[in-house]
Amino acid sequence: MGNAADAGDAALLKIETRGAVLTVGLNRPAKRNALNDGIILALRDCFSAIPDDIGAVVIHGVGDHFSSGLDLSELTERDATEGLVHSQMWHRVFDRIQYCRVPVIAALKGAVIGGGLELACAAHIRVAEPSAYFALPEGQRGIFVGGGGSVRLPRLIGVPRMADMMLTGRVYSATEGAAYGFSQYLTEADGALPKALELAERVAANAPLTNFAVLQALPMIAEANPQTGLLMESLMATVAQSDKEAKKRIRAFLDRKTAKVKPT
Ligand SMILES: COc1cc(/C=C/C(=O)SCCNC(=O)CCNC(=O)[C@H](O)C(C)(C)COP(=O)(O)OP(=O)(O)OC[C@H]2O[C@@H](n3cnc4c(N)ncnc43)[C@H](O)[C@@H]2OP(=O)(O)O)ccc1O
């Protein structure tokens, strides 16, 4: 990969602000949004500088696909040492997405393949439309996942299904992706981006401390032993409910100034 100090190619992302929501479009449609060094470094730059007034991010693909994965043309000359550096750079960039200050929602359509699937795994919510399909063709290419997929994806779909994807390279449909716990939402045709934006507006309106707790504490609590997890939960709950934002929101409900919980 280019030097880690290199700047990413900003043109490879289409970044827009819609109120409190930042939309980040992978912008190499002619190459089906294949992830080259320029786009990975641009993602790093983008997720290193989320403006303070942004409350959620939607990541999507410009054109008909989310991403066709690693740009294979960059792999042909790479030796093992370069491969290790490259994979660890991807890990750092995808970690930056997973540990982002605000929720990240992936809107998925068309190809969600290899490294593109690994990128989607780093988001907190995945919304897919019927055109989306998921595959890990690394086996067919003689390689192994290198963008954190072997850590994140089995936690979503389980090791046996992950092993099936990696060994067979079979294409999983959008319906399967939702049924197996990869995507939390399955929309109608062309519905992924609108639904992702709707969800982003909704989560951006949460108290910042609630989102912080869900993004930073929940994954650790869920993986901790039960005693540690319960202690962490109590501490997080105490901090959140002591915050003036929580007091304000609870008062608003008790004074009937805010909406009731109702089915959508
Ligand atoms: C970081 O460390 C790592 C990372 C990884 C990650 C590994 C992977 O991601 S493996 C998966 C690699 N991806 C693929 O094998 C998919 C290949 N693409 C396709 O199968 C198809 O292009 C398609 C996505 C199904 C779309 O088909 P279609 O709409 O018909 O478009 P095409 O005509 O095929 O393509 C148009 C154009 O785009 C080029 N292109 C598409 N995908 C890629 C790609 N992944 N890399 C490079 N280029 C791509 C295609 O060649 C065409 O180019 P033209 O110049 O001919 O127009 C592993 C290990 C690590 O350490």
UniProtKB/TrEMBL annotation:
BP terms from Gene Ontology: fatty acid beta-oxidation
Recorded superkingdom: Bacteria
GO function term, MF aspect, one: lyase activity
Keyword Membrane annotated: no
InterPro entries given in the database record: ClpP/crotonase-like_dom_sf, Enoyl-CoA_hydra/iso, Enoyl-CoA_hydra_C
CDD domains from the UniProt entry: crotonase-like (cd06558)
Keywords per UniProt: Lyase
SUPFAM superfamilies, alphabetized: ClpP/crotonase
Keyword Lyase appears in the UniProt entry: yes
Family in the record: Belongs to the enoyl-CoA hydratase/isomerase family.
Name this polypeptide is given: Crotonase/enoyl-CoA hydratase family protein
Lineage of source species: Bacteria, Pseudomonadati, Pseudomonadota, Alphaproteobacteria, Hyphomicrobiales
